[in-house]
Amino acid sequence: MTNTLVKKNNTGKYIAIICLALVYILAILLDNFLPATSFTLMLIPVLQKGAIYALLCVSMNLLNGFTGLFSLGQAGFMLIGGYVYAAITIPAAQHDSVYQYFDSAIRFSIPEILSNVIGKGPGTIVGVIISLIIAGLIAALFAFLIGFPVLRLKSDYLAIATLGFAEIIRAVFQWEGLGAITNGSNQLRKYVTLSGMELNFGSFTLELGTLFLFVIVTVCVALVVLLINSSYGRALKAIRDDEIAAEAMGISLFKHKMISFIISSFFAGVGGALLAMFQTTIQANAFKSAMTYEILLMVVIGGIGSISGSCIASFLYIALSEWILRFLDEGSLFGLISVPFFRDGFRKVVFSVVIMIIVLFFSKGIMGDKEISFKGIGGLLTRLKNKKKKTAPAAEAVSEEGEANE
Amino acid sequence: MRFPRGADPFGQRIYSLCSKSFRKEELCKMSDFISANLPYLLAGISTGGQYALIAIGYTMVYGILRLINFAHGDVFMVAGLVMVYVSAAFGPYVAIPVVIISTMVLGFAIERVAYKPLRSAPRMSVMISAIGVSYLLQNCALYFTGGLPQVYPAIPFLAKSVTIFGATTKLVTLITPVLTIVLVVVLMLLINHTKMGMAMRAVSKDFETSQLMGIKINSVISTTFVIGCFLAAIGSLLYFSNYTSVIPTSGGMPGLKAFVAAVFGGIGSIPGAVIGAFIIGICENLMKGLGLTAFSDAFTFVLLIVILVVKPTGIFGEKATDKV
Amino acid sequence: MSNVLHVENVTMQFGGVVAVNNLSLDIPEGKIVALIGPNGAGKTTAFNCITGVYQPTSGLVEFMGKPMVRSTPKGKMKKQYKGQNKELYSSQSVIDPNPDHITKLGIARTFQNIRLWKSMTVFENVLIAKHMRAKQNVFSAIFRANAKEEKRMREETMALLQEQGLDKFKDELATSLPYGLQRRLEIARALATNPKLLLLDEPAAGMNPQETQELAEFIKQIRDKYNLTIFLIEHHMDLVMKISDYIYVIDFGSKIAEGVPEEIQNNQRVIDAYLGVADDDE
Q: In this predicted complex, what is the ipTM?
């Protein structure tokens, strides 16, 4: 990015596009054509959840890694996003069964309305996209309101204040008084989930859940990458590096912190909504500060200030904790030797020890503040091809989301 | 503080108390009110005392390392679990000293392992390390308890029932504030009149200079952690005596609230933390008395944000200016 | 001759410590003015009052004839100022003294202890200073709707780096440069904000005599080239005497002398307060 004189090299772009296409094709294959073995049954949810957490990590990294704001309000914004999404996509007919103890205030469902206009399949998909955007916008609105008091605070005060806000939001969403919207402390369910993303072609139904999720996450992460590489992104990094110098160079601290906070919360809201889609039910009580901590730890593992690091770490983290390290909980090693202390919860202990080791001894995480660069890979390939020619070393990263999605 | 009129009888009572026409009935009502709400008030003072004991740990560590020790609440929880397991094996009276000592050792170990290597790292890294420790402690607790709530043993003399002003309560409710104040006074004496206390004050004023003046930073910091954990252990004995069980996450909320108390009173100031803790404890329990239990936790954080916006340095905090 | 900056009776207190006491000074357009004084005399604090980092306890700072009036905290200054100059206040011609706002109006500064953005390259360091005047909002920036603007910023930055002789280091990390070049980069960064008044806080600190010599030329050069007014804090007396048109001397926060270099060199109070100390110092 920094090098203005680098020759236009499109190899990187092509590689990125090819990788993305491969990932998308894989997503379609997994959902529709591959036989449902125990392997794919594990793989699909891990990929889905990994993608959602990738988005959540990236949105947190935008604040913590790129703006230097130590905010711990992530769970709160996810909660808002998830609830808003759920509330506006529950089919109208289902309201009475979901809101058992309350008189539901929202009596419409955006995907349903659109389905009536442009047909069931596409209507639902477009409706869900609109609902996701609304969910993000409302989370962003909250961020805007919360930002006024808290963004003037210094690092650790900011952390504790945002943590407090997340707790307040959690309490408010469980409050009976808002039951008509939030269903009190009961869960919301029966809204449109990932399995509702499908297109009918006559008798054949094309499942699009995983693909839909991947596309949304790719677009969101790409937007964050575009922001970071823009003039505003540079200003945010300047604030992170030295607030006083940034201010002296005419960068309004409050305005830029607010921008970062709002955008981060928007994506946290979208991420929360996606999580709601993935989980099929949502309950405010689950959005505790532990959830924020978990995302923060993923960001640290990937490297604070690296988007590709965040993506890799979230897939790795989810795959390890939900799948590969399962054996630690199940009492035996590879099903052969039974180990007495392998029982429920041991996986998490091992996991947190590993995290502590990373935090203490590899504080840069997987990627540090570097990015995987398709341009770099492209440059490498070109160099391998024509060894005689000297090629300028390719500069820093551009969009690399596809890589992380694998 | 103002309560919405008409929303509840209590609010109206307050309102009429504030009006100038004091009649006899009102006084009767007041005594009614007191006896009706006394359990909450007493519980509030007691919870406040318990929060104060935790809050001191936060405020002292913050004063010296400028670190929010997110793991402190979990240390408190671990103290509760140790009590459960040890007293099951050896009875409560053996368990008490074991709990206190093991908590102090835990605090010392956490500091040495998780914070000392990061002395020169950015503040955010240390905070992340603290969050990591908190995560580790919770997961270990989850592993050992199997996720089941562990019934807290009754310490016979604390669990005794007493009746004051017609309100029945456990003895622990009355002991807590007294014990808290005694401990705080002792701690203040220690800090103001011993060599170690002087070193602590020096380190909290200026970390680097005191290092140059030959103060052994590491031993001062360790002492701070040990004292903080000692008080947290006492706090946990008192706190869990009021509740029936310990779960891996039961340290989180009291920990956060104690931290809020520390911020409220002005972080770094011990009397501030104690007063803040009492205020929060009492407010929280009065909220419960008003039937707003769902908001008793949220209220604490509202209080936090209000204080941060109005007076970021807290009630007793010192103003610091950044050097440019 | 018009004054770019007018400082009137500014006092800055930190608790009981009076860092700047009743300081008044004027900086005429197009001149190089120096502020000198022994260590701890309050020079940097005075700079911080001018650039809005600190809010003076009392007194008035005017830039291009517009007073700076703080609206927060608690509207203290505003109220005070309102009482004294009601008609002026109502005429919308006041400056909100936030550092970024002041920079936008045309005061740029460097720092005594260099404050470059550590994780960024030389090129980015200057480019970011252009951000303030970029004609784009967040959305046009994200969606690359205004590529021309970005291109213009890059070209201007490149041109500025070439003028300052920093172009060969443009892709290096700012902090990997030698000390002297870091100082020069800080000046380049300040110039990138298109200032009218440039405040230099000890630009020659840590430089050897030859570098100081070059710096003197350099300062004069940039003044002429960019039509700047320059206000600097400096300890190197030869530099100060050589380039300054006017000098203010402060000690213990108060002004003890002012005048052209010859006057200052012969002023007994200055010699007592400053030069004797400075000899041990340097």
A: 0.86
